[in-house]
Amino acid sequence: MNVFAQRRAALLGLLQGPALLLAGRPRARNYPANPYPYRAESHFLYFTGASLPRAALWLDAGASTLFVDLPAPDDELWHGPQPGADALREATGVDEVRPLEALPSVVAQALGRGLSTLPANDPVDRHWQNQHLGRDWPLAGTAAITRDSDVALAEAVIALRLKHDGAALAMMEHALEGTAAAHLRGMAVTRPGRHEAEIRAAMEHELLARGLSPAYGSIVTVHGEVLHNVHYDHVATAGDLLLADVGGEAHGWASDITRTWPVSGRFSATQRALYEIVLAAQHDAIAAVRPHARYRDVHLRACLTIAQGLVDEGILVGTPETLVERGAHALLFPHGIGHLLGLDVHDMEDLGDRAGYAPGRTRSPQFGLGYLRLDRDLEPGMVVTIEPGIYQVPALLQSPELAGPFLADGTLRLERLAAFSDVRGIRIEDDVLCTDTGHRVLSRAIPKLPAEVEAQVGSQP
């Protein structure tokens, strides 16, 4: 309770007028009584800790009010005992709890005093905002916030959520304990003949058994070249690499971990060669995480290491610096080195690049570098992912526009890359805290050295 009160006080100290944060509402799968699993909007959750459907947090004149749907007479029949206003006030530490139907009149009285709010992600909640706040919110989301008061609220929320307090870090480390168990279990049950779905189920079991939930759609696949692959219908066979991007969530706080391991329990020589390039790139990028380091430079450090490794293997021709400057490495490492991590697995991306990019910085037009989700100087308390990879994506390698120039001048040697055909995709990802003196790898308990990974694969039935 004290943590949330401190966060609300800090936010109020940054604002000139009243502010409104909505929790969101459940969405029906097919009829109202059968909703999808509900999770409160992250901004609301950060300042209340309460996952209350349809609730709203009102901040004004140094005080906080929670507007909620108070229990109906028959709620207990269907849902069990529900907390009333007094219990919610005690649990969250807000100054007052009022019925939700009282909110529109409060908003109406405040419209002339610089009311600020963040547009909701859900179209139903956005319609509520349009109706009661008289604002035409952009349907594309919140990246286009333009009203001065709303910009001020967005910037204030970003300033507070960029650097995590002790309570937030404790929740993230709790999520990582279950995530570590999930990855160890996934390695242990992997063997030729197992379906991806079976391995995914074993991993998510470790999360659910600890009261955690997946922070995002788990990626457990032998087709790691598909970066956001959420299909689980393939059989893992000897010679395959299995890429598992699985992270647990504790009270909304996310973890995000990727490991890649050989289905047969042993990397082939070609698999190990590319795996060690990715691992070296990750080590170099993690070493670059420190206060005041620019995250873009952390990304480029990994790119240089990958480019050097690909040159050493004869896949690319040229100096690493020139290859990275031209973007040749992005044909095999097309995404950014990582992103912010917090209440969202891609933290605050509902605010667009306003959260990820420091003022005055914009995305690069270059393929690959343009996918970088974060370009801020790191500060103590920030948590980022570090997740380099190497992928053979036919659409990229066969693209006349992207690969054509590098094939024409001999920079990319497809005939040499063909020797590595047993590698579809490799990614290694850890969650890293920037500290006062450098960094701390929060996910260090999850093995990633080749011999350590091999020792875990197939060790359990």
What does this structure look like?
The chain is α+β, with helices and mostly antiparallel strands. The chain has two domains: 2-161, Creatinase/prolidase N-terminal domain (Creatine Amidinohydrolase, Chain A, domain 1); 166-179 and 249-456, Creatine Amidinohydrolase (Alpha-Beta Complex), CATH 3.90.230. Helices cover 37% and strands 13% of the residues. The protein has a five-stranded mixed β-sheet. The chain has a three-stranded antiparallel β-sheet with strand order 6-9-10. β2 and β3 (63-68) form a beta hairpin. α8 packs antiparallel against α9 and α10 runs antiparallel to α11 (295-312). The longest helix is centred in the middle third of the chain and has 24 residues, at 166-189. It is globular. It starts with a helix and ends in a 5-residue tail after the last helix. The model has no long low-confidence stretch (mean pLDDT 94).
